[in-house]
Amino acid sequence: MITTLPFADAEGPLRHVFLRDFVLLASVGIYPHEHVNPQRVRINVCLAVEDETARAGHTVGPDELPRVVDYEKLANKVREVVTTGHTKLLETLAERIAAVSLSDRRVRLAQVRVEKLDLFSDIQSLGVEIERRQAGRGTQ
Question: pTM value?
Answer without folding.
Answer: 0.85
